[in-house]
């Protein structure tokens, strides 16, 4: 699969200067002149439809992508042929950093809903970051955050109960929605419960059962994919394994 990088943004398209997510993406802390230089290398492609692939494991690494709106999932095929979802990406987050070391991507990236991304040619980004130390630091921060998140999830998935895994997932989503300017206590899950189960290593029936238990305990309210957190502190305690729920 080849990456469609589209064309430079037209005056009618969004620009970094006016994007509400520019404080989350790589333009963080750039001055106006530097922001113009960064904006000049961005390619904004047509939005992806639900289920459409951004790239797959056969795509060579040439670009990073910043999610403008919508959401994406990354899946890999394991040795025994089972597909496992490894990441979800929300607005303001960078996609593709894991392709830098190998020159390729470890899995398939698909849109969970209508999703718009900014394509950032890495060769031009690398050159520009050499001229703009603040851009280089922002890139390092993004890499560090991804490493931190990966290690966090390894810890959460290893040795934690099913209820702690799901509670951690919901708390993590709350933090990420808040970071991109949305409500941390009322949000819509862009992914299906089967996707959540694949990500957490749990059966979809387990996800549904635990959602029911969380509601019965008064921790949250779930109406299809709409989630309202009612007892954030208690849910966070469940995520840490401090307050297990009992049948």
Automatic annotation (TrEMBL):
Signal peptide: none annotated. SUPFAM superfamilies: cAMP-binding domain-like, Winged helix' DNA-binding domain. It holds the Pfam family cNMP_binding. PROSITE patterns: HTH_CRP_2 (PS51063). The keyword DNA-binding applies. Keywords: DNA-binding, Transcription, Transcription regulation. GO terms for cellular component: cytosol. One of its GO terms (molecular function) is DNA binding. Residues 160-233 form the HTH crp-type domain. This is CRP/FNR family transcriptional regulator. It comes from Chromohalobacter marismortui.
């Amino acid at each position: 699969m080849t990456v469609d990088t589209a064309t430079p943004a037209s005056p009618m398209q969004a620009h970094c200067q006016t994007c509400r997510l520019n404080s989350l993406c790589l333009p963080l802390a750039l001055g106006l002149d530097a922001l113009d230089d960064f904006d000049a290398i961005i390619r904004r492609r047509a939005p992806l439809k639900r289920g459409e692939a951004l790239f797959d494991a056969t795509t060579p690494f040439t670009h990073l992508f910043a999610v403008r709106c919508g959401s994406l999932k990354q899946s890999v095929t394991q040795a025994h042929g089972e597909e496992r979802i490894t990441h979800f990406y929300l607005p303001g987050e960078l996609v593709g950093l894991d392709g830098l070391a190998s020159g390729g991507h470890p899995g398939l990236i698909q849109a969970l809903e209508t999703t718009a991304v900014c394509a950032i040619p890495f060769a031009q980004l690398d050159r520009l970051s050499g001229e703009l130390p603040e851009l280089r630091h922002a890139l390092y921060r993004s890499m560090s955050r991804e490493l931190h998140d990966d290690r966090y999830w390894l810890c959460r998935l290893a040795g934690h109960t099913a209820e702690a895994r799901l509670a951690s997932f919901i708390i993590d989503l709350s933090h990420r929605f808040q970071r991109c300017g949305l409500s941390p206590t009322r949000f819509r899950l862009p992914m299906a419960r089967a996707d959540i189960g694949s990500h957490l290593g749990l059966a979809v029936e387990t996800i549904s059962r635990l959602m029911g238990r969380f509601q019965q305990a008064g921790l949250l309210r779930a109406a299809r994919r709409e989630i309202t957190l009612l007892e954030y502190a208690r849910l966070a305690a469940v995520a840490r394994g401090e307050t297990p729920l009992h049948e």
